[in-house]
Design a protein that fits this description.
elongated; EC 2.7.13.3; 52% helix; 3 domains; nucleotide-binding; Sig_transdc_His_kin-like_C; 5-stranded mixed sheet; alpha+beta; Beta-Lactamase; phosphoprotein; 5-stranded antiparallel sheet
Length: 369
């Protein structure tokens, strides 16, 4: 009888131990997922936090477990930015019953928050947080390509139709100019011709942005290109009270590029930097630093200014066709630059903060020796 009782106890303990092992295994998997996970019970108390979520909040798991939302918001280790984001997530997901919410953190990374609640969790609420920055970048690239394709169709259909009458108008103004000179109104002709030329320049930008010509590549040291660009922009920079600083690099980094096109990109970025510096109302000297560095298989051309910088909205739309913050801008310069660098097999990135200046990084494939 005793032996039978012992066998019954062993049989009942064995499945319990097996279940416990499985539960521990699953909990260990959840703890070390690359997504952040936090579970609230039906009373709003945190019952589980995985390693990634604690790392993102920068608060220990032990300090979070057992906290209510109010306790969490009062936690001294939680910074103000995260408090605001948690309140917004609560409002969007719990109050407005939205199961998905996106946010951008202090470093500009994109996160997708998914909320699961209902009968399947017996009243508990599960929050999961996943980094979707790479997906957003792929989506933005596809969106950018669609916009450039649309711009190409629009440009091809209207540019020639506008240029033809402008050419005729310019010719007639030239014929009328002697008569205007006799009347003492030659400045009228100058203004009209200047505006026609400006309109033609805009049309040229349309045509160039719709389909930049195929690169006619030449192998040359990046340092030589940057020296030439610095000389070209030095006088204009002095007129706008800023200094061009060219940082020497003894490493002879060589790239295969269309010199005219890449020069157009760099000049456009430097001109934008000059405008950004000119709009800063302070006494600090304006500087534009140009440098080149090797980064893996690429030569990185860095153009950094100490101008007014950009907010996140401007930064997110910087390469969109027709987007500009200038009164007289067309919004095509940087979208054309984006296309040119892409056609060279390179990349262009921007880092900027308001009041702290802007840095453009142009990555071009190195010529393998």
């Amino acid at each position: 009888m005793i032996n039978g009782f012992h066998e019954t106890m062993v049989d009942s303990i064995s499945p319990f131990q097996s279940t416990q092992l499985v539960n521990n295994k699953y909990e260990n998997v959840l703890e070390h997922l690359d997504s952040g996970i936090m579970l609230f019970d039906h009373e709003g108390v945190v019952t589980f936090v995985n390693v990634q979520m604690a790392k993102l909040l920068e608060v220990s798991r032990a300090a979070l477990t057992g906290c209510s939302l109010v306790n969490m918001l009062k936690h001294p280790e939680l910074n103000r930015f995260k408090r605001k984001k948690i309140l917004r997530i609560y409002r969007e997901t719990i109050f407005h019953r939205k199961r998905y919410h996106e946010l951008i953190d202090e470093s500009g990374r994109h996160w997708l928050i998914t909320v699961t609640y209902g009968d399947q969790l017996d009243g508990d609420i599960l929050f999961s947080l996943k980094d979707v920055t790479d997906y957003k970048q792929i989506e933005q690239t596809a969106y950018q390509n669609d916009k450039l394709a649309m711009l190409g169709r629009i440009s091809a259909s209207i540019a020639h139709e506008i240029r033809n009458p402008l050419t005729a108008i310019r010719g007639f103004i030239q014929l009328l100019r002697p008569h205007l000179l006799q009347l003492g109104k030659d400045e009228y002709a100058k203004i009209i011709l200047s505006e026609i030329d400006r309109a033609n320049d805009i049309i040229y930008e349309f045509l160039n942005s719709s389909k930049p010509s195929a690169p006619q590549k030449t192998v040359l040291p990046v340092a030589n290109l940057l020296k030439e660009v610095a000389l070209l922009t030095e006088s204009e920079a002095l007129m706008k009270d800023c200094e061009i600083i060219l940082v020497d690099n003894p490493d002879p980094l060589q790239v295969s590029i269309d010199v005219k096109q890449i020069k157009q990109v760099i000049l456009n970025i430097i001109k934008n930097a000059m405008d950004a510096i000119q709009n800063v109302d302070n006494v600090r000297p304006g500087t534009i630093q140009i440098a080149v560095a090797k980064e893996g298989r690429y030569a990185d051309i860095l153009i950094a200014d100490n101008g007014q910088g950009m907010d996140r909205h401007t930064l997110s739309r910087l390469f969109d066709p027709f987007f500009t913050t200038k009164e007289s801008g067309t919004g095509l310069g940087l979208s054309v630059s984006y296309r040119i660098i892409k056609n060279h097999g390179g990349f262009i990135h921007v880092n900027s903060s308001q009041g702290e200046g802007t840095e453009f990084r142009i990555s071009l494939p190195l010529v393998q020796k």
